Amino acid sequence: MSRPDLERLGAVYPRYLNAVVLHGLATAQAVGLGATDLYAIGALTFEGRMTSGELAAKTGLTTGATTRLIDRLEQRGLVRRVPDPADRRRVLVEAVEDEAVDLDDTLAPAREKLGAVFASCSPEQIAALTEHFERATPAFHEAIEAIRKAE
Amino acid sequence: MSRPDLERLGAVYPRYLNAVVLHGLATAQAVGLGATDLYAIGALTFEGRMTSGELAAKTGLTTGATTRLIDRLEQRGLVRRVPDPADRRRVLVEAVEDEAVDLDDTLAPAREKLGAVFASCSPEQIAALTEHFERATPAFHEAIEAIRKAE
DNA sequence: GGTAATATCTGCATGAAAGCAGAGAATGTT
DNA sequence: AACATTCTCTGCTTTCATGCAGATATTACC
Question: Which UniProt keywords apply (chains A, B) (predicted)?
């Protein structure tokens, strides 16, 4: 791979990441949630129900703070507490589908604009992007883990 | 473009974005900054000096809150206030290079892991990714603007 | 030159998020 | 059956980012 290509990527990529994060912050603020709360909803939506403790690990919060986080989300009807039948100390938390309406509205502009970006891609480009996202996602999660361990 | 391709992208992409945002949050926390503060540094680094008011517009904060944001960053030596010679009401803010050492360390894991992801791409894939990032960045910024207007 | 508009800063107040330490409930371990 | 461990929750406290409204300084307009 030629050097100019990599240089261009190196210039573009940080700005891109910055924009993604800022969009996340703006979204959270628009729906009246903290950024961590918004992430938690995402995690619950994408990965399904999990225990309070698992959510604490994912968010990097203490278990106490996580209880409060779940309280907040439950009060807004975005999330539901379900007792774990197998271990009654545990609480399973699951996202309430259909209740994230305003969140959906807030994400609409991004969906629209990025939809346009993707729509003008060739199938080969879509394939390349999909593969990248698939590989980058675990990379970010590993980096998160490394960051937290280093603290 | 075939439907299965788009479905796969639709499944992967939200998780990817979630991971990026979470990484941003974890990074901010690791260096002891708020998420907004971290974004501000990025904006100043990538776009160069700007006035306090411009920074307020970019972050979505009031000018008062932005003054405090600059105070915080200045106290840590990450940012510098420079009087605008053309208009002495204004204050230009610029990132202090070389001072973001711990931030660099915190970003190191992501750089490494994502570097590996990019390194195993063909030149064509790199080109597709770079082009995507270039087009997605303004799309996100437009979406941010739309979100804030809708509020 | 005098008044209005603009840009940043300050004081004050508030709300919200998170940590910590201990309580309560359930499970496992010997 | 007793004890230790695990999981979530609660009370309390602290920290901190942010808004708001007014103060101050500078520039623009008439």
Answer: DNA-binding
